[in-house]
Amino acid sequence: MSSTKVAPTSSDLAHKVALYRSQYALRQFEKRAYDLFLEGLVKGTSHLSIGQEAIAAGVAAAMRSDDWTFATYRGHAHTLARGVPMTPVFAELMGRTNGLMAGKGGSMHLTSVEHGVMGSYAVIGAHLPIACGAAWSAQYRGTEQVAVAFFGDGSTNIGAFHEALNFAAVWKLPVIFFCENNLWMEYTRTSEVTAVANPAADRASAYGLESIIVDGNDADAVFEVTSAAFARARAGEGPSMIEAKTYRHGGHSRADPGKYRPDEELAEWMTKDPIPLYRTRLLEAGVSEDELVLIENEVDAEVDLATDEAKAGGVPGEDLLLKDVWADGGASWRN
């Protein structure tokens, strides 16, 4: 049986080039964020997702502008992938008034309702029921909006994970649960404390859902499987749970060198780095080296400009302490 290889169309290539740009931008942003931390400019803790860019880019490319993203404290990439500019995110990391939340939220609480980014949540699994609430509102209003909740493999052992899945399945909510399985919890290998091999996918059947596993380092695969889940949700067919196999290049947080991970494991996964793999795929599809270099240079310049703009921001004053804490903007009504 023979098959004919179909050449990609210009629209296909444009889509893939945009996916590459997104992944490259997410990588360069977080590399710069780490540099800023070393300079003492990023306050508080921060959690990078270097190595997992294909997930944020692939899912965002499948979303409508009015869909919702719910992220964990590791939310830089998911926030940027929805179209939030780099400058206010850098500024938020540095605690500046030109930050996304005027410097009050920091790395772990990025939010931009305008872009459908409904918050980054520091409590493990806390956002999964909240994503169900957003999906329930879309179902009630008949808007065909879909909520996507990203979470790590460790969250699958949290009660909120099971509660949210059960609720979503019973009500057939338009929500996608997306597990970024990078094999390790904070400092513990997930397989050592989890009863099943695939912490999310192997539990799907308990809620009447299909077991879906995708290569989380392949942006095309992520886009395709997520697009199908979006179509299912918009058609009123209920939730999906997707487990993406991926690997974070660094440790859990900025203070963790990740030395507990075997060297050979890290070396193997570094050969699966999503960005050089996708770059090679584009070259093989006919995109020129010059075009890719131009994209990379443009992104690098964007990162430099955003860094300078963020650094120029002011430091929050006492007048912002009670802003956005109470509905009326202050605490005077309580006294």
Overall description:
This protein is α/β, with parallel strands linked by helices and 335 residues long. It has one domain (10-253, 260-308): Thiamin diphosphate (ThDP)-binding fold, Pyr/PP domains (Rossmann fold). The protein is 42% helix and 10% strand. The chain is built from 10 helices and 6 strands; from the N terminus they run ααβααβαβαββαβααα. The protein has helices at residues 10-38, 53-62, 76-81, 86-93, 127-141, 159-171, 219-234, 263-270, 274-285, 289-311, and strands spanning 68-72, 117-121, 147-152, 175-181, 212-215, 240-245. A 6-stranded parallel β-sheet has the order 2-1-3-4-6-5, with helices on both faces. Strand 3 (147-152), helix 6 and strand 4 (175-181) form a beta-alpha-beta unit. Helix 1 (10-38) runs antiparallel to helix 9 and helix 5 (127-141) runs parallel beside helix 6. The longest helix has 29 residues, at 10-38. The radius of gyration is 20 Å and the shape is globular. The N and C termini lie far apart (80 Å). Residues 1-7 have low confidence and may be disordered.
Topology:
Layout: H1 10-38, H2 53-62, E1 68-72, H3 76-81, H4 86-93, E2 117-121, H5 127-141, E3 147-152, H6 159-171, E4 175-181, E5 212-215, H7 219-234, E6 240-245, H8 263-270, H9 274-285, H10 289-311
Parallel strand pairs: 1-2, 1-3, 3-4, 4-6, 5-6
